[in-house]
From TrEMBL:
Key words of the record: ATP-binding, Cell membrane, Membrane, Nucleotide-binding, Translocase, Transport
Entry protein name: Phosphonates import ATP-binding protein PhnC 2
Secretion signal, residue range per the UniProt entry: none
Organism for this UniProt entry: Acrocarpospora macrocephala
Annotated ABC transporter domain residues: 6-234
InterPro entries in the cross-refs: AAA+_ATPase, ABC_transporter-like_ATP-bd, ABC_transporter-like_CS, MetN_ABC_transporter-like, P-loop_NTPase
Phosphoprotein recorded as keyword: no
An annotated Gene Ontology molecular function: ATP hydrolysis activity
Amino acid sequence: MSEAALVIRGLRKSYSGRQVLDSLDLDVRSGELVALLGANGCGKSTALRCAVGLETPDGGTVRVDGRPAMVFQQIHLVRRRSAIDNVCAGALGRLPLRRSLTPALFPRELREEAMACLDRVGLADRAAERAGRLSGGQQQRVAIARALCQRANVVLADEPVSALDPSAAEQVVALLADLAHQRGLAVGAVLHQPALARRHADRIVGMVAGRVVLDSPAVAVGDADVDALYLPAVTR
Ligand SMILES: Nc1ncnc2c1ncn2[C@@H]1O[C@H](COP(=O)(O)OP(=O)(O)OP(=O)(O)O)[C@@H](O)[C@H]1O
């Protein structure tokens, strides 16, 4: 197994004195999809947000070997722009400011790279379509293509399929697994669908109240392991 591209150790975070992350450890290796499961409010999003620097932890360490990108449940695309313009947006940090503000000035090489990213998510034929006209599943795949265009090697997805129908959700999680297995990306995804996690993830990490209580190959995770993550606190 390769070195972990994301290594989190002893992460702690509180909001208004209430502890949300309590000494959290998490590794995501290149070439694997790790599904993060756990009940509402157990700290999954906070963990990912700390990992990419959107939140500042109170303690602990985060090491990312490479470039991280995040994919969200709420798909933040510019709806009136084409799919390919949205994917190009992943690279704007690499462009001079003037060129980054005007899609007509995006360099040809960037458009080619963005097209390759769209092709990777199976949407090359929809490149010119306005993002707002694509289905939810297609929009999420455009958001993933944008992360690829950021040249991210660590992709963290926060409930990427919660707004999608079962078939679109299956496609998107399969795509994330494929990007890990075929492209060698390190992919961590918060999922609220344990069955999808067990079908597609390599490893399942389960959280309860800000701590990791399960870290196991997905094939070894049974129904009882999953159920234990969602028990009400009083019965735990
Ligand atoms: N910016 C914030 N300010 C105050 N409290 C916060 C903030 N962000 C998260 N919390 C609280 O921290 C706890 C954990 O939130 P988090 O979103 O990480 O949980 P989660 O496991 O991702 O939940 P869900 O499955 O519902 O998305 C929750 O009680 C939430 O209300």
